[in-house]
Task: inverse folding
């Protein structure tokens, strides 16, 4: 007969894991002499789960994930691809409450599930992608996405750590949003700033099409997909080069 696990011992290990994750985030902030921000959560997560990079999404006004932070160019690229084609681990994580784990994007199951995203992610240098929903009051409000440059599963401990980093991100983002303009830089630098340009371009396309914002966003994504260009480049052309969309 197998021995029963001691609930008190399990609780102690869980508490230790939580404390270790929180300290990893705080330690990065201390080295910068700055308050804890979303980049510290993502970068600490990348280190602890041995990831190539980490990206963070929040559900936006149009009902899709909007990029908040990416630790590197590959993370930024796969985030752009997922939003453009509307498929991938993060897209599915945003719709549910469970992690979406894709350790082998070159495999037939992944290629069938995500025929547009999987090959693009592999080409970008992310053959393994894992997404963890940001859950608040039993509702998914965003996603934390991890990629690796080689195929392979995350260990059980790495999955547990990633889920805890997602919890830390939820709490931090709630505090930042409540704080208002004082912490606006958390959402308006890097990939977040480029997303602001995309929002403006959606508004311009909406006027050109005499349509709602949702249709304008679909057309913008379709143009990006058809031309194999990032959404941010299409948005820049709309705003600065006079690119037009016909009704």
Result:
């Amino acid at each position: 007969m197998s021995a029963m696990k001691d609930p008190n011992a399990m609780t102690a290990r869980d508490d230790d894991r939580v404390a270790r994750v929180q300290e990893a985030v705080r330690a990065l902030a201390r080295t910068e002499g700055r308050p804890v921000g979303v980049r510290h959560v993502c970068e600490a997560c990348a280190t602890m789960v041995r990831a190539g990079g980490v990206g963070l999404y929040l559900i936006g006004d149009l009902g899709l994930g909007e990029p908040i932070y990416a630790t590197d160019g590959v993370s930024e690229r796969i985030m752009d691809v997922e939003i453009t084609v509307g498929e991938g681990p993060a897209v599915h994580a945003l719709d549910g409450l469970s992690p979406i784990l894709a350790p082998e994007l070159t495999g037939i199951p992944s290629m069938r599930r995500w025929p547009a995203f999987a090959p693009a992610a592999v080409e970008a240098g992310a053959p393994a992608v894992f997404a963890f929903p940001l859950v608040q009051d039993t509702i998914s409000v965003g996603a934390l996405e991890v990629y690796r440059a080689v195929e392979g599963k995350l260990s059980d401990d790495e999955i547990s750590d990633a889920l805890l980093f997602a919890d830390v991100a939820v709490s931090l983002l709630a505090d930042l949003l409540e704080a208002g303009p004082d912490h606006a830089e958390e959402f308006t630098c890097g990939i977040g700033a480029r997303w602001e340009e995309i929002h403006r371009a959606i508004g311009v396309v909406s006027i050109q099409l005499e349509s709602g914002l949702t249709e304008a966003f679909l057309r913008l994504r379709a143009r990006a997909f058809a031309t194999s260009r990032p959404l941010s480049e299409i948005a820049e052309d709309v705003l600065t080069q006079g690119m037009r969309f016909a009704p």
In short: Residues 1-10 have pLDDT under 50 and may be disordered. Residues 7-32 form the longest helix (26 residues). The first strand starts at residue 53 and ends at 59.
